[in-house]
């Protein structure tokens, strides 16, 4: 008997999925951050990403079964967002995972039970695909589940064989599709997305692929599945596309209300823009909630691009002012139950959106001005068509929609070269694809292969500065070796180590590995240590002896360097606490660097920290140091740590149990780094600089301990040197320098006046050389090396003396700089010659640009060799225009 799908909300679908697998022994785990642990991936793009080390055998699973609802971001198909029924940048992937526990038979049975019995999908509406060679999966679906063979499609590697890269874990997939139109019969074409939607993908990770392409069975066979929450919502809520589900449509409606339009009565173009806004706002809200900040690189660039696309599409549907914050309120309200951090970071989300939107609106205004210039230039051309290159520059650089460029061009009676625009777009997409990073489970290939045979490194460096250890891996030029002679650069993995590996902004320890009773045996200098999954890699140089595999050695860190690093690391904790007390309690860390020489702390702030605030921060931190606060270090469940008020460090990933560094009454943070036992060990703290590094992000650089003395010694030497030069005491230097600056300004003014008089004198000599063109007089000349201001004064004076005239003057004030000025009388303007446009075109001949008012304008260039040609062109154009 046919049944109907249950009508469930997006939240109910998510919870139903998680509960279903929890009842079957799966541990419900929280969604990982959109900032992944994997350094080869910009953003979390799949539910399995947080389990990568487990799939690679580098880390043991806490539970043999897990289930998650993972928030993901993908931008590889961004141009399809809003245009198709189910493309998104942000989406949620429901998943169930088995780490060497159950496999195909159980995964298929549960997927079918969940789909048909729990969600109530009619069996006649379901079609299954399997890998063409996976007879086992085909047989399970047909013989045990009971699906007719003609509704099981065998497909090739491109569709049904999952692999992350050229090597590593891989395996066949089986996908479940929903058929919206079973009445169309058994002519099944799963590529027909108007009829079929794939909503559940089961990956049977059963092979390891080597560099030659050979497949060998994995010792532990894993299950990795993904069900698209938005897709299942579309099916169960019986709406035509994902955007009209309750997961997204309230956001779409809020944008439509701001624009004063009705979604359902709008044309397709308007609907696309509304859907883009709905999708992208979800994405940016979660990205900012996960502490991503807009910038021009990496994930920050993706965030900025998404925000700008929202603003662009808002303009397309008639929204003129700022609106993203209001739309974001809908997205936050929809997400906060499942992802509480979007509400807790509401202030930061709205501040980032408001700042980026305001900046981009200014950029759009500049684009509109550029479009005006392009339209004017195009009207003077024969083909009356805006080039594809110009249209793409407007689109890519200024965020100007192609549709808006077309609309304005049409109003002016001209067209746009759409083919040329597409060529430019494809070139840009090619560049983006070449730079695009995807999941690569084989980064550091040699290390990953060895991970299956070695144990994780035991870190003993919190309590010990040296320890006995065994050499487990030696790499030379990325390849494993049995031994390494003196003079060889190596990468070494030990079974245990006191060396801290670079993490959380703290640089890795330096030190030595050695053997031999009298110090005359092996000596390896360690310059850096990095962590790869669960083992530490020591980067160094064999200075003496021969390093051998399985050798017992002594690992000893540089204690002096460690002490300075510890002081700087604790100082960053105190700095964050002081910033929150003195500047803004909502300040959060956006990055850090802690080395033995200095510390750098990036934080989110909409404004600069004042000099007075910096002094207060410095004084407060030094008072904490003097008060000698003892550190309390403890491990506890993460929920307990957050309940106590511990601050999480930016970009760090935390397990169920965390390490808390607490200086009671001063600072408490989750941190795996090394720290002083007492703030008194820091000695002294000094802020070196404060500056902006990106929109909404500030940076403080500082030093502590011995480095403060080094810093002050350098500055003391500078002060003493200045005192000797000016024959003044240190306290007299500011007034002495101010007096010199004033004297210099007076001298510069006098020099400028002399140059202006000289230019006027030179220009007066040109009066007799003016050419007559009927009722007009023209002068086109070069005035040596006079500066731009003097050149401008001379041009204005000549035009006024000549009356009905056009004057174009040039000079070379510096060896590689050209200055140009045009002064036109009103009568010249009436002939269609505008000084701004005229001088801009002339400047292009000298590799420059410029513009100004119709009667007076200036420009510059860099190619002095082209100046004679440019002036000759100016003269000819004036003769042509005024003759």
Q: Could you explain how this protein is built, in words?
A:
This protein is of the alpha+beta class and 883 residues long. Helix content is 40%, strand content 25%. It has 25 helices and 35 strands. The strands form eight sheets. Strands 1, 2, 3, 4, 5, 6, 7, 8 and 9 form a nine-stranded mixed sheet that branches. Strands 13-16-20-19-18-22 form a six-stranded antiparallel β-barrel. A six-stranded mixed sheet has the order 30-31-32-33-35-34. The longest helix is centred in the middle third of the chain and has 34 residues, at 346-379. It is globular and about 105 Å long. Mean pLDDT is 87; it is low at 433-444.
Mean pLDDT: 87
Number of strands: 35
Radius of gyration: 34 Å
Low-pLDDT residue spans: 433-444
Helix content: 25-40%
Query: By helix and strand content, what is the structural category?
Result: alpha+beta
Shape: globular
> Sheet with the most strands?
9 strands, mixed
List keywords for this structure.
25% strand; 9-stranded mixed sheet; alpha+beta; 6-stranded antiparallel beta barrel; globular; 25 helices; 883 residues; single chain; 40% helix
């Amino acid at each position: 008997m046919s049944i109907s799908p249950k009508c469930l909300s997006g939240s109910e679908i998510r919870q139903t999925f998680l509960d279903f697998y929890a009842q079957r022994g799966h541990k419900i785990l929280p969604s990982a951050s959109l900032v992944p642990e994997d350094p080869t991936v910009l953003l979390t793009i799949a539910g399995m990403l947080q389990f990568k080390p487990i799939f690679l055998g580098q880390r043991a699973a806490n539970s043999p079964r897990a289930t998650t609802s993972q928030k993901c971001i993908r931008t590889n198909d961004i141009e399809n967002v809003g245009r198709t029924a189910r493309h998104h940048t942000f989406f949620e992937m429901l998943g169930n995972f088995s780490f060497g526990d159950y496999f195909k038979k159980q995964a298929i049975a549960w997927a079918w039970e969940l789909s048909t019995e729990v969600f109530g999908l009619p069996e006649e509406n379901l079609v299954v695909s399997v890998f063409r060679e996976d007879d086992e999966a085909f047989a399970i679906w047909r013989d045990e589940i009971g699906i007719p063979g003609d509704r099981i499609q065998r497909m090739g590697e491109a569709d049904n064989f999952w692999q992350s890269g050229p090597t590593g874990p891989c395996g066949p997939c089986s996908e479940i599709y929903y058929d919206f139109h079973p009445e169309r019969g058994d002519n099944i074409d799963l590529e027909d997305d108007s009829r079929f939607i794939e909503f559940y993908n089961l990956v049977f990770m059963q092979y390891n692929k080597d560099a030659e392409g050979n497949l060998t069975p994995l010792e532990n066979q894993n299950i990795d599945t993904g069900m698209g929450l938005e897709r299942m919502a579309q099916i169960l809520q019986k709406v035509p596309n994902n955007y009209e589900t309750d997961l997204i449509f309230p956001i779409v409606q809020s944008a439509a209300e701001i624009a004063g339009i009705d979604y359902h009565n709008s044309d397709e173009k308007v609907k696309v823009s509304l859907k883009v806004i709905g999708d992208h706002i979800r994405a940016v809200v979660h990205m900012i909630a996960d502490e991503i900040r807009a910038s021009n690189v990496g994930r920050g660039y993706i965030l900025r691009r998404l925000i700008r696309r929202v603003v662009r599409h808002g303009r397309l549907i008639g929204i003129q002012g700022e609106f993203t914050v209001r739309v974001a309120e809908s997205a936050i309200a929809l997400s906060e139950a499942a992802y509480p951090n979007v509400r807790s970071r509401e202030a930061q989300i709205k501040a980032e959106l408001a700042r980026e939107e305001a900046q981009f609106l200014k950029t759009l205004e500049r684009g509109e001005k550029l479009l005006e210039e392009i339209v004017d230039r195009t009207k003077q051309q024969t083909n009356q068509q805006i080039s594809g290159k110009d249209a793409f520059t407007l689109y890519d650089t200024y965020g100007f929609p192609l549709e808006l460029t077309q609309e304005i061009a049409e109003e002016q009676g001209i067209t746009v070269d759409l083919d040329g625009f597409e060529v430019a777009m494809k070139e840009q997409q090619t560049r983006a694809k070449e730079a695009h990073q995807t999941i690569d489970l084989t980064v550091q290939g040699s290390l990953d292969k060895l991970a299956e045979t070695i144990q994780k490194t035991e870190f003993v460096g919190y309590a010990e500065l040296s320890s006995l250890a065994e050499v487990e891996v030696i790499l030379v030029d990325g390849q494993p070796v049995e031994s390494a002679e003196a003079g060889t650069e190596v990468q070494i993995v030990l079974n245990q180590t006191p060396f801290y590996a670079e993490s959380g902004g703290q640089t890795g320890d330096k030190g030595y590995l050695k053997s031999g009773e009298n110090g005359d045996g092996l000596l390896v200098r360690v310059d850096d240590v990095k962590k790869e999954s669960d083992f530490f890699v020591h980067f160094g140089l064999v200075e003496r002896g021969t390093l051998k595999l399985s050798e017992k050695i002594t690992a000893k860190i540089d204690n002096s360097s460690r002490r300075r690093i510890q002081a700087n690391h604790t100082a960053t904790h105190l700095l964050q606490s002081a910033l929150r007390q003195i500047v803004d309690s909502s300040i959060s860390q956006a990055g850090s660097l802690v080395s033995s020489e200095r510390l750098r702390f990036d934080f989110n702030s909409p404004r600069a920290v004042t000099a007075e605030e910096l002094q207060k921060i410095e004084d407060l931190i030094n008072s904490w140091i003097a008060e000698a606060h003892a550190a309390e270090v403890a491990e506890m469940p993460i929920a307990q740590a957050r309940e106590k008020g511990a601050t999480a460090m930016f970009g760090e990933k935390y397990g169920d149990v965390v390490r808390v560094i607490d200086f009671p009454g001063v600072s408490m943070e989750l941190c795996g780094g090394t720290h002083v036992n007492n703030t008194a060990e820091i000695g002294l703290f000094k802020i070196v600089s404060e500056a902006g590094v990106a929109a909404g992000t500030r940076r403080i650089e500082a030093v502590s301990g011995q480095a403060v003395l080094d810093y002050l010694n350098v500055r003391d030497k500078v002060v003493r040197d200045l005192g000797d030069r000016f024959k003044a005491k240190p306290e007299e230097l500011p007034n002495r320098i101010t007096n010199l600056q004033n004297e210099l300004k007076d001298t510069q003014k006098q020099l400028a006046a002399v140059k202006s008089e000289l230019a006027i004198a030179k220009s007066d000599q040109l009066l007799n050389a003016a050419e007559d063109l009927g009722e007009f007089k023209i002068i086109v000349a070069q005035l040596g090396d006079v500066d731009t201001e003097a050149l401008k004064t001379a041009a204005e004076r000549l035009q006024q003396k000549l009356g009905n005239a056009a004057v174009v003057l040039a000079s070379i004030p510096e060896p590689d700089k050209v200055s140009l000025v045009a002064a036109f009388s009103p009568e010249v303007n009436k002939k269609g010659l505008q000084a701004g446009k005229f001088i801009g075109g002339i400047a292009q001949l000298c590799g420059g640009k410029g513009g100004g008012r119709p009667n007076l304008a200036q420009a510059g260039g860099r190619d002095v060799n082209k100046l004679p040609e440019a002036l000759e062109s100016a003269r000819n154009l004036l003769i042509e225009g005024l003759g």
